[in-house]
Design brief:
It is a single chain. By secondary structure, the chain is an alpha/beta fold. The longest helix has 19 residues. The N terminus is likely disordered.
């Protein structure tokens, strides 16, 4: 796989090999202090539009200023205003399903997790809405696939599987095990709106979702955010949520169907929607309001080509204060996700600030509302502070440090781009080899802020530290990663621990710094591989970059 990627890209090693100043020795204790500070209870889980945001963005701006950066936000400030629709469910939603003549009440966060409506409406009132199983809920004309043929979903509730049709079989019309965008929950919600459904319920299963029910519950039953849209109903239905697999299996059984058999049928292009002979009732009040959150932006102007930009990015937000865990803890501190990425961003800013100025400008961007759907980076990419056409590349950091020292590195997803070639060469000087994303089926490429740039053509990747541990190898690395996903990811337990092993930090930071310097001090414009879906968009802006 590594050889395939490296030989299919356009730039030769000589072309991308711009010399870079030697990376400094990074202050691991200072990085740890940044993580500890941002993940402390005083920052209340860094929820957008909360006192935790005010503290977080002030701290980040203060550290950027101390590092020698200049403010790059709106009107000469450190901040870019990001208007967002904020929605909360008021009180306890009343939810039930009626099947085989029996009405079954559902408990929010237990069998079901519904989100506050993102349509701007102040209440949800659904009565006797029929449930219809629509397989994976995919409409992909380019793949000759349509899960909606012959069905009218107006006034009905879509019941849909997570991931895409190739997940279980590992091969098919969707490229095999690696998730396409059709597998993301965001796509399911968007397609439900296009189909005119009254609501959508995604069936949760840990393997195809790549996380457990605790993550679903914690991510969907608190405050919701979205970008401000002219027509929100074009992207959202009134009720969006998830149900547990066991509830889905019971519904299928009561309808005289077998859940696993229906899943198998949904993996084929001739699948047709199946009525589940059940109805849903939902009633709850929603409080919508438009608020302003903030991206934080600091820049080091380039010495020779200040109008050209290299971006380092990381999201500063987490889930804030939410439902208590078994210990009664309600603060979702987000130490690894993503105080660690912000700490890396700040330490890189300090390194650049004390080194010779780069030829291109380097923008350090801490974005908001990643946990709500990449909203801060989406807003930046739609309203860039620096032109995207002359942005040479984006290096995103979302949990950038290994659990321990590793022999490899990776990135989210399996996209092919020149920036990966540069990253592979850079990491090689640290004795680290590239390993393809170990979980392409998790769709991580679509779940971090680099995607907002990638879909607009900008070469962008999200760095992953790998998991082939020097002590214990890939098996132990996987075990530690799985334990984090199961026990800490999007849970109050994602807290700073002074006993963390920081063995990977120096190497990870050196790789990130050197990659950015090579890009900032070079004259190349990395691109996507010729068969990438993002290549044409980037090529359309080539005239803006000159020679």
């Amino acid at each position: 796989m590594k050889r395939l990627i490296l030989t299919t890209l356009l730039l030769s090693t000589a072309a991308v090999a711009a010399p870079a100043p030697k990376a400094p020795t990074f202050d691991t204790r200072r990085i740890s202090r940044d993580i500890e500070t941002l993940a402390s209870d005083a920052y209340e889980g860094r929820g957008p539009a909360t006192p935790g945001e005010e503290k977080s963005i002030a701290y980040i701006a203060q550290q950027m200023k101390a590092a020698g950066l200049q403010p790059a936000g709106d009107k000469g400030s450190w901040y870019q205003d990001v208007p967002l629709l904020k929605s909360d469910i008021v009180g306890t939603p009343q939810l039930s399903i009626t099947a085989a003549g029996t009405k079954r009440p559902l408990t929010q966060g237990s069998e079901i997790a519904v989100r506050a409506a993102m349509t701007g409406q102040t209440s949800v009132a659904i009565a006797n809405a029929p449930l219809v199983f629509v397989g994976y809920g995919v409409k992909a004309p380019e793949r000759n696939w349509d899960d909606f043929k012959g069905v009218d979903l107006k006034g009905k509730i879509m019941v849909v599987l997570i991931n895409d049709p190739d997940f279980d079989g590992g091969e098919g019309d969707f490229g095999g095990k690696a998730m396409t965008y059709y597998g993301r929950w965001t796509y399911k919600y968007e397609e439900a709106a296009r189909q005119g459904a009254a609501g959508v319920l995604i069936v949760h299963e840990s393997a195809p979702a790549s996380y457990g029910w605790a993550t679903v519950k914690n991510s969907n039953t608190n405050t919701m955010f979205d970008i401000v849209r002219k027509d929100p109903a074009a992207s959202h239905v009134p009720m969006e949520g998830w149900i547990q697999r066991d509830l889905a299996a019971d519904l299928f059984k009561q309808a005289g169907l077998d859940f696993e058999a229906a899943k198998a049928a949904a993996r084929k292009a001739d699948f047709r929607a199946i009525p589940l002979k059940a109805t849903l009732d939902a009633a709850y009040t929603v409080k919508p309001e438009v608020i302003t959150s903030h991206n934080v932006a600091g820049i080091l102007p380039g010495a020779k080509h200040p109008d050209e930009t290299v971006i380092y990015s990381a999201h500063w937000d987490h889930l804030g204060v939410g439902q208590p865990d078994a210990k009664g803890d309600r603060i979702y501190n987000g130490a690894l996700d993503n105080a660690s990425g912000v700490a890396a961003l700040l330490e890189l800013a300090r390194a650049y600030g004390s080194a010779p100025k780069p030829d291109r400008s380097v923008l350090f961007l801490a974005v908001t509302a990643e946990e709500k759907g990449l909203l801060g980076s989406e807003y930046y990419a739609a309203n860039p502070l620096r032109p995207l056409a002359t942005t040479a590349g984006v290096v995103n950091m979302d949990g950038p440090f290994g659990s321990e020292k590793t022999r490899d590195f990776s990135m989210y997803g399996i996209a092919k781009l020149d920036l990966l070639t540069m990253l592979t060469e850079t990491a090689g000087t640290e004795g680290r080899r590239y390993t393809p994303d170990a979980r392409p089926e998790a769709g991580l490429f679509y779940r971090s802020d680099h995607f907002s740039f990638a879909k607009r053509g900008v070469p962008a990747l999200s760095y992953s530290p790998g998991r082939d541990l020097v002590v214990g190898g890939a098996a132990r690395g996987k075990a530690l990663e799985d334990a984090y996903t199961r026990d800490r990811y999007h849970q109050p337990a994602d807290q700073y621990d002074p006993k963390w092993n920081t063995g990977s930090v120096q190497s990870d930071m050196t790789i990130l710094y050197t990659l950015g310097r090579r890009l900032a001090d070079g004259r190349v414009w990395p691109n996507w591989s010729t068969d990438s879906e993002f290549r044409a968009t980037r090529d359309r802006t080539v005239s803006a970059r000159g020679k």
